[in-house]
Amino acid sequence: MSLKTPSMPQLPANPPKSPKLFRTQRELNKAEESPIQGTLPSWVKGTFMRIGPGKFDFDKDFTVQHFMDGYALVTKFDIRNGKVRYEKKFLESDAYKKALIAQKPVITEFGTKSSPDPTKSFFSKMVPSIMPELSDNNNINLFGIGGDIYATGETCFFRDIDPDTLKSGNKYDTNKFFGLQMASAHPITDEDGYTYNVGCSLLAGLKYSVIKIPPTGKNETAKDAFKKAKVLCNISSSNTGLISFMHSFGMTKNYLIFIEQPYVINAGKVLGSVLAKATPIQDWLEWRTELNNRFFIVEKATGKVLKADVVTDVGFFYLHVINSFEKDDHIVLDITTFPNTNALTKKMDLAKLRRLSIDDCDNPVGERYVIPLVDLDDVEEGSNCVGLASGATAVRRGKQLVVTPEVITERGLELPTINKRFLSKKTSFYYATGSATKGYFENAVCKVHASKKETILWRESEHYCLGEPQFIQNPEKKSEDDGVLVTAVVDNREKTQDFLLFLDAKTMKELGRAYFKEEIPAAVHGIWLPEDDV
């Protein structure tokens, strides 16, 4: 059924005194242009796009329960000639259009149960299903293939977006392509132009699948590449009746690294939700403290899964692999980890966020794992076979290689980014924000020297919330940190202006900013499109 988007009210509905950061937003019918205060390098030209939840409230006194249930809003900053042109538009997903008609979600979201769909006929509601209807509210990430830009979430759907107009385009379904009901929100493209992703099947046996999408050829579109994509390998879940939640994975020059974690989907609860109807995805998930993490290492060239059983001693929850690379027959993987899932579950309760009820007990930490590429038969029982200078260990215990990390930061940093030229290569630095946490990194954006465990902060006000930074590389490529960071800053006080901030990525000193009368929404992830790519 084709749905037209109902007209939006001029102003969004919001509970009284709702903090700016967690308010329902409105679209910009006319772009706002602002001068940059300061001086940027002449090569900083392009488009900074972001996506995240933007509509939480409906006219009939209904508010979604979880921050990540807000309907996707795309923001765009065109940066040229000392000015920034700001636009924002809702992603016209089926879930969004149906919610506007019903004035509440009619497709299950992560933390909000669905309501009856008034657009469905009586007979279509009676059609049996073995899988709950999944949402295409792709409000998590943006990625590019062959010059096309896509919005994605963690279900089977992704949708193309025109970066010029922000108009929503075609919807794609990994379930139809590959039989996968869930997929990572962070596909990775390597130097050769191949794009990889990891997904899972809840129906045809509980398994993970690694997908390989070829680069687009001459006169080809990304849609042509999708048709030629293949399943590189399948990996059975380690736990009967359970399959891991996934958000990102790692890649080196020769390997893909997928980490199974103790936050798992219970297949029985998924089937039960078909009968009970309307249960949110969060209710399918369980935090199993008796389970640890398992690292699956896959050869990119062949799809072969290395036989070493690499596990952690203590389980952790994670969202973002920072980067990974190979060094002297080892895989080095940097990651942000949490001691539990509270950051995604309890902390993302929208009512709590609007009360600014945020604690610091479950903050993420930056860690480095070092995995030797060894044959366990050649390793003595109880010996640490990490051959690099590192505080990380990898000890043989029976038929397993048990890994422990080296801690590289204090707790509190998330939404990491790197100079994309160093993806899958040895990196010294990454950048992240501490805005969603209490503690040392609060209200700051940070540069981390992973090996030296040193940090440099930019922080100005306790009222500022800084989003995920993006690294803009100097075309001269003199060093890894030779570039400019761009991030959006929300001033959570009333009657203040939000702004786009530019920092020297080497020194973390401010280069400039551009203020806007229109509010800048919170976002999850973004993408930098150099002028030549727009």
From TrEMBL:
Keyword Acyltransferase applies: no
Cofactor(s) for this UniProt protein: Fe(2+)
UniProt xrefs under PANTHER family: BETA-CAROTENE DIOXYGENASE, CAROTENOID ISOMEROOXYGENASE
A Pfam family hit: RPE65
UniProt record similarity statement: Belongs to the carotenoid oxygenase family.
GO biological process, one term: carotene catabolic process
Taxonomic lineage of the native organism: Eukaryota, Metazoa, Ecdysozoa, Arthropoda, Hexapoda
Keywords noted in UniProt: Iron, Metal-binding, Monooxygenase, Oxidoreductase
Region listing for Disordered, in residue ranges: 1-20
Name assigned to this protein: Beta,beta-carotene 15,15'-monooxygenase
GO MF annotation: an example: monooxygenase activity
Binding-site residues for Fe cation, renumbered to this chain: H186, H247, H320, H525
Domain of life: Eukaryota
Cofactor-binding details, from the entry: Binds 1 Fe(2+) ion per subunit.
